[in-house]
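@channel sequence for tomorrow's demo:
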Amino acid sequence: IYFIGTPEMAVPTLEKISTLENYELVAVGVFPDKKVGRKQILTPCPVKERAETLELPIREIGSKKELQESFEEIKFDLALVIAFGMIFPKEIFEARDQKEWDIINVHFSLLPDLRGASPVQSAILTNQKESGITFQSMVFELDAGDVLLREKYDIQNKNTAELWSFFAAETANIIESFLDHY
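structure tokens (generated this afternoon):
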């Protein structure tokens, strides 16, 4: 598995996959460290921090070209993407058609509804009673691939932070089952 992610909400799933005996994390794709705060201290993203403590191989990706190169150089069967924050270039999907690997996006909404970068906030703003987690085969068009798994949850009376945390934990809880069935 080539795990690609950035924020804290991707960390529980990274941690869970790292403990699974039947699966190997061959690389963790992350953005390069960024300058943070008034003192502009170079700081790794949460996924990189955790990958370092787990002693996992890290691939820093600062551009679409570097992302494409990582797909050419790393040997994997499945890329799992959680909130990476970069649109994948078309060339990656064209290469997938000639390779034996796939790319799965984990999205914190019930796709195809609420596509895009802020699905949890959108669900709250539109007074949705339920939302969830979708595992989707990635295609070049944003959040438009085949839906492989949708888990629904009641989101009433929850704020954005609570839902991000809940969906992060639930993704970690269901990842092994998803991988086994995939």
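heads up for whoever presents: The beta strands are 2-5, 27-30, 34-36, 41-43, 58-60, 78-82, 102-107, 130-137, 147-154.
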